Amino acid sequence: MKTTLLKALATLCAAALLLPATVQAAPSDPSVNPKALAALKRMSDTLAAAKAFTFKSSSIFEVPAKTGQFVTLFSNAEVALDRPDKLRANMVGEAPHFDFFYDGKTVAAFAPHTKVYSLAKAPPTIDAMLPDLEQETGIRFVTAPLLLSNPFRVMTRGLTHAVVVGPSMVHGTVCEHLAFRSPGVNWEIWIEKSARSLPRRLAVTFTDRPNFPRTLVEFSNWNLHPWLGAGDFVFHKPAKAAEIPFRSVLKSAGR
Prior knowledge:
Elements: H1 3-13, H2 34-49, E1 52-64, E2 70-82, E3 86-93, E4 98-102, E5 106-111, E6 116-121, H3 126-137, H4 144-147, H5 151-155, E7 161-170, E8 173-182, E9 185-192, E10 199-206, E11 214-223, E12 242-243, H6 246-253
Parallel strand pairs: 6-12
Antiparallel strand pairs: 1-2, 1-11, 2-3, 3-4, 4-5, 5-6, 7-8, 8-9, 9-10, 10-11
Helix pairs in contact: 1-3, 1-6
């Protein structure tokens, strides 16, 4: 994948939608509650078993302004995934408004308001494409583990603490609230207490950064059996759209 793509996605999501890679926690660590891991594993198994799924999300994240102050931005997304090699996202809000396509061969970003787009070659699977983003830039989307074929393996890396906070309601859905810690990051997840065990909320605090910036993501409209076609993930150049570098696409989209 081209470096221009990766830098652009980093520009979009840096300090807001990212998690560092770390080292696997020792299962015998008394600070890691097995019940918290079991709940996380059930969620992982649900997502891993789904050949395809769609969801919507609403995010609140803090990013540094030029003045040094951290400002709070709001963003919404609609995501569609078809394993092993298709991903689509539509992002709107105070973050750049653009559509993202991955069809197993190519990634594309399109800013509909200004009709500009960019293309780049990509690895052949979602599991390879998302880590490639991390390898080239040192960052990754905070929701990336949920999109991989084995979320649990990624989300349990580096854990120093895992706690069952207790039952909680997220927009009328009964959830289990879990809290985890690893070097440089504290994160919490609210998992639906049902046979589906789907994630409903994710909160991340970056403890290795000034002001401890936070990100909050809420998930809704999960569909584990969507009707998706291969063409849904292919970018089709709109009439009169112009190709420009990825960084310019994001700037044109509003950031």
